[in-house]
Amino acid sequence: MTMKIYHSKEVEEALKTGAPVVALESTIITHGMPYPQNVETAREVEAIIRENGAIPATIAVLEGKLHVGLEDAELVELAQAKDVMKCSRADLSIAIAMGRNGSTTVAATMMAAYAAGVKIFATGGIGGVHRGAETTFDISADLEELARTPVCVVSAGAKALLDIPKTLEVLETRGVPVITYQADTVPAFWSRDSGLKAPYRLDSPEDIAKVLKAREEFSSQGGSLITNPVPAGDEIPVSEMSEFITASIEEANKQGITAKDVTPFVLGHLFEITKGRSLKTNIALVKNNAKLAAQLAVQLAKQN
Ligand code: PSU
Ligand code: MN
User: Fold this and answer.
1) Cα(139) to centroid of ligand 1, in Å?
2) 186-211, pLDDT tens digit by residue?
3) What is the distance between the alpha carbons of residues 107 and 241, in angstroms, rounded to a whole number?
4) How far apart are the first and last CA of the chain?
5) Is 197 a catalytic residue?
6) pLDDT tens-digit profile of 240-281?
7) What is d(CA 247, CA 84) in angstroms, rounded to the nearest whole number?
8) DSSP state of 198
9) Ligand 2 centre from 141 Cα, in Å?
10) Active-site hit among 25, 46, 145, 235
11) Which of 161, 164, 165, 248 has its CA 20 to 30 A from that of 155?
12) Rounded to whole angstroms, how far apart are CA atoms 90 and 112?
């Protein structure tokens, strides 16, 4: 990799000294949440990572420069910027070469984190196999990236607007370990329980870090997915959420929304029809993931 990477001061220092670092994506800031909740959440998430002993590295492209670790002013600028490209693997080089502002999805964040030597990454929910993928072929590049790039992604599962059973099948086919933290079933983003049995359950950051170490020693290919259920007090149970999700997907289909626009549209529509409840849960689960990711990064640094 010869791409020049720009770091915030604290990330630069942490990478030099081998201190634990947690990568954060930015599509959630530009396309996943409205302003000002997006910037408030981004700041709180960074604070949680510091409180838990690691350094946050929010990843984005600013005027064509790839940043791994944003200064606060840059974060605020990104959260308010218009015309930000949603960058997955296919879009990153375009944003960089054309001098654009771009936010990174799970896939592009993994690429950049790996290039910078950051092994743990916290997000809300990954992209996956969309409902109706058998006709649309809409499968998020996040799954391909998890199969390819050795970064551990801490999530609340796949966003429940997706087809979760198909998403788990693809992850299995592509050889991605899926570990649920302290629960027997895979979470469904806004809900703690999708009803689907977790491929693996582990109960401590120590044990998860051991798995990551073993995977790294075995081969340098492919990431791992940790699915971390949202705290009980913050969840919207599947029984309540599924009606909302169906309504939002129907609206997306009616309006002819496709490809990269589907996820942002559905998240925005859900925010409206749940009267802000979906966003509250989304914020809670991202914070919860940031905490676990920081604990994992600390454990990993101890092992090395
Ligand atoms: N998690 C959230 N909100 C988001 C996303 C994840 O809580 O907006 C973003 C992530 O960046 C993820 C992307 O990679 O949605 C998936 O988009 P697509 O389905 O188009 O691949
Ligand atoms: Mn897609």
Assistant:
1) 12
2) 999 999 999 999 999 999 999 999 99
3) 26
4) 23
5) no
6) 999 999 999 999 999 999 989 999 999 999 999 999 999 999
7) 27
8) P
9) 7
10) 25
11) 248
12) 13
